[in-house]
Structures are given as C-alpha cells and as structure tokens.
Write the structure tokens for this entry.
Amino acid sequence: MAPTRIVGVNLLALYDDEQLQRFIRAGMPVLAEASVEELTEYTNAVEARVAEKRFGTSTGPRQLRNRGGHLRSSLYAEAIGNHLRNIEGAVGATAKYAARHEKGSPGGQRPPGARTAHAAIPLRAAMTPSGVPRIKPREVPHSYFIRSKRGQLLLMGDVGGVSTPMFLLVRWENIGPTPPRLGIEDTMNKGMPRFLKKYQARLTSELQRLAGGK
C-alpha cells in the first residue's frame, strides 16, 4: 500500500526575521538530524500501536483477526531525508492486500485483476487451525462443483477419501462492503498533535543549544 506519510516542516518558511533565518540555515544539519530522530520515534510508535490494537483473535469493526501474521509482519515505519525540505516519515504495510484493509472496500464489484466471476471463500477443510488458507482452489484434489440445498455454489474435494466442501463460491457483486480496519492513517492522525508539540519543543531546544543557551 502507499504509505501514510508525514512531510517534514520547512522551518525557513515559518520565520520572517532575517537574522533568525541565517541562524537556522547555519544549523540545518543539526535540525535535520533532530527531525529524523523525532520522526523515527513517532513512526515506530504508530507502527507498534497499529500492530497491538488493530490485530486480535477475531475480526471486528476496528480490528483484524491475526491469522498467519503476514499482514501484521509486513508493517513498517521509516524516516528519511537529509534536509528540512525533504525529510518525511512513513508508516505502511507491504502486503499486497493491505490497502483494502486500510481504506476499506465498497463491495458489490469485481476487483481489478480478478480472473473469475466468483470469489473463492475457503471453508474449514481448506484452512489451517489458525484460519489461514492451506490450499488454493485449483489445488483441490478430485475437485468438482455442487449446489447445496440452500443454493450455494460449493467447490468439493477429497479429504482422506471423503468428499468435503472446500470453498464457497460467491459472485463478486454479491459480496458486501469491507470496513477500513487497519487504521494506520487514523492512528497517525490521532497522535499528530502530541507529536507536533514534542517536535517543536525539540527544535526549540536545539536552536537554544546552538545559540549557547540564549
């Protein structure tokens, strides 16, 4: 997913005093280093909070079930840049489906790249005890399709010599919306006022130190 970013503050645009601007320019390397340190601390804190609060043993309106741990382990945080004009922090996830959980999905439509008209929803026999799919539909041995008494389309397979339902096939347009549950941007926005206050205090301290405590 595209990471949620904090863009570095251009301090020179915040002050009109010519002498102060010259002083800030002289202290650019120190202020840039301090900015990276503060952003690193904050983005790491956001990543840790998302990992702690947004994953659990069950799926809810604001929480994802932590099954195989792939999405959770794909979370990352970083702060990059070497100048106040290009420093930025980012929190994101590298799992290809992370954006769907971050932004949510309206449902009722076939997603880009889907090769079939149906979504294959794994049933118990196709999952590990932790709820992670252990097999793909095309890998099901001796597979065939049936309609259940309720009219559901099922992909059947051989499990220990017994014909067993493996996947429920649902047309994409019949799948409901998915709420945004990952919460990276929400977590970042909630902590932003405190971060900016701390960030400003750090820069003020660095400026005072460079000025000899004046």
About this structure: The chain is about 35% helix and 20% strand. The two ends are 45 Å apart (CA to CA). The chain has two domains: 4-105+178-210, 118-174.
